Amino acid sequence: MKKDFIPPLVSLVAVLAITQGKFTSSLINLLIAGVIPGTSLVLPSWTMMIVYCLAITAIITLYLEGTLGKVRANRNAKQHKRQLPRRRFTSI
User: How is the chain split into domains, by residue range?
Assistant: First the structure.
């Protein structure tokens, strides 16, 4: 999965939050109270807690996989460099 779309998406949300007062208000109402913008629906608190936990887990997982993946790749590269070349025997 490509992660190239995450930084532009975050910057778009940041720009919208800074420039649009209604957007910021709606986003805060959604995150804190669970009010879905444009409707009269309200999400229950347990649903919001599940969403928060899943979002935090996804963020931490992406971070750790990225960090540990680089460490593993460096370790494997170092191990391959330390190995002696294979001996090849020719038959006469």
Answer: 1-43, 44-80
